[in-house]
Specification:
The chain has three helices and 53 strands. The protein is mainly beta. The chain has five domains: 125 residues, Immunoglobulin-like (Sandwich); 124 residues, Sandwich (Immunoglobulin-like), CATH 2.60.40.1240; 126 residues, Immunoglobulin-like (Sandwich), CATH 2.60.40; 128 residues, Immunoglobulin-like (Sandwich); 119 residues, C2 domain (Immunoglobulin-like), CATH 2.60.40.150. β2 and β3 form a beta hairpin. Keywords: Signal.
Length: 700
Amino acid sequence: MRNSYAGSRLRRAAMTAVAALLAACAALLPLIAHAAKEGVYGNGDVFFTLENVRYSEGADDAIVRFAVALHNGGATAVDYNGYGVRVVDAAGIGHSARLTGKSVARVAAGREQSFPYEARVGKGTGTDSLRVVVFAWDRAAATGMNDIGTFSVSAAMEAAAAEGTVPEASVSLGQIDATINSDARVAFRVGTEYLVRENGEWTVYVDLTATNAGDAAVTLPAGLAIRLQDAEGRTVAAEAVDGADKTLLPGAAQRMTVKAAVPDGGATGQWSLLFANGTGTDAVVLDSLPIGGGRKAATIGEARPLKDGQGRETVSVRASSAVITETEAGLWVRADVTVSNDKPQVAALPGLSAVLQARGDDVSVPANDTGTHPAYLSQGESETYSFRALLPKGVAPDELELALFGTRGGSVSSAAAADSQRSSPAYPVLIVDLRGAETMRQDEGADYRLGDAIGLALDGKLEASVTELELYDNETYGFKTAVAKVKLTNADTVSLPLPDLGLALADDSGRVYSGTVQSGAVETLASGSSYMRTYSFMMPEADESGRYELRFYDGSDASVSPPPLGSVRLAFGDDDSSDDVWNVYPYRIELRDSDLMLNGTLGTTFAYALTFNVRLERKEPVVSDATVSKLRFDLVDPFGLVIASQSLPFQGATKLLDGGNSVTFSNLKVDQFSSTNRVLVYETVETPNGTVSRKLGALE
């Protein structure tokens, strides 16, 4: 008996251990299968999860929509007709849940099936207190049902958001139009949202993906009403602006864009997109989708894909750089947008346009791009657009956004088709937060060293640098004139048009002197070459020892306040006219010796011959106009009066030579002869406001 009792006790202990192990495994199963979701277990290997939860407030009540998914892990089919659900609020009041679609009730072994529901609850109930109860029908029970378990509505929504699950609205088209098959159903998902300032109010654009969940081709009926509703129940009509007229093939997806004006104060809130039957007196809401989570703006440098109507990615677009400059006229913004084709086929460029808007202000200003762009992008190619706009004073730079719009269409086969595409309506394609933009003040240019590249926002791979800033005497008007020599370099592999740069010189007293560019400049700059362009500034009150701010502008803009491109601080050159080195960019001239001699005999008229030897060094291989800069030799008497003048250019047949040079002053009168006559050397520059000169040295 003792042995029998001991054996029985061991068998019972073993059975208990096995049962405990099986229970532990069963408890772990839902955690392994759906770690982020609540799970409710039915009989055996059947469990349920709560999916695709949406909540929206109506005029008189609220609607919670959801799907219960049955997961059959067993070896035989399960009939869902044996189960049901209801919705319970915080007061314990049950609300019936109605199936909103047709589904096959028998779920095969190893499969899962979703069953969509909707339940109406009291207005203002909210999601925190709502629970979905799963029960099994039981005739023997007092209520006819046995509760299996409950789901938290808010927990299910939070879990879906954490997983990145996109909610889906299912709309029965037969409930809107009786001529459409009752099985016809379209599923809607929210893609990208764009909040833009239009016509003095905030407008939200929503790109939806509409998928035909039926077995036959359908077109959305005219009676489908789409509305936007906030948490307080305010409702505005939404307009389908693209894609709603397309035929949807079975299983096929199509982009559909809707827009709605957002009431004041609601631009930053959470909204619901309602799909309703608008054919009756009172619109009946069929389903809804939450929006507001897809409005995250891109950062500078962040690329996002553009998609065609079927959801296929075509090109990528990004704001490659942005500069915000505070000026006396307001905020000048320049944003460069790069479109890239990373696909294995040629892509059509969308017609892009842009608007600068401020999140906290009623400000929306069109941004202009004056460039010309190709119709297509080949594989691996990119194209850059440069948008500029002037915003009023008082707008905070960290509130700015770039709203980018693009036309729509598939690949095009001709330039004419591409032009037609660009003239079609434009829709938002990217919102860029400009808080990462480079900011500067127009009057805060950095100290500059001559010859260094200046970070100007120029098209292509063009570089600009100031090689010389000198003060000259204007022989026509008697004013001092500053001349800046600017070197423009084409670092690209193709020829580029010379940029239309405007310059201004500002002193510390706030006086601004506009620059006048030389006439007759070249129009195109070859690859790898540099060109010198001069700018002159008439300065009645020039401080020769002061520091100045040299401002660069877009010279193609004829407005009173053209777009700024950058600025630097520098001073006039401090040349020593008593030494034997003359700096005349791009040349360095070192005088070796000189001699002023009587040429021939002294009579009623006579001539001087100036001979001199120099070392002529060209510092850089920069192209310049032959007529812009020259050396002038003035023969002066002991009183400083000019007797005669001669000039030598730096280019041409009579140019200044490296080595020996000679200049003749002829037809001089005998009374102009003096043993103390000498020659003063000047650089002269031809400007649109006359010839200007600066002294380089003297030859005895």
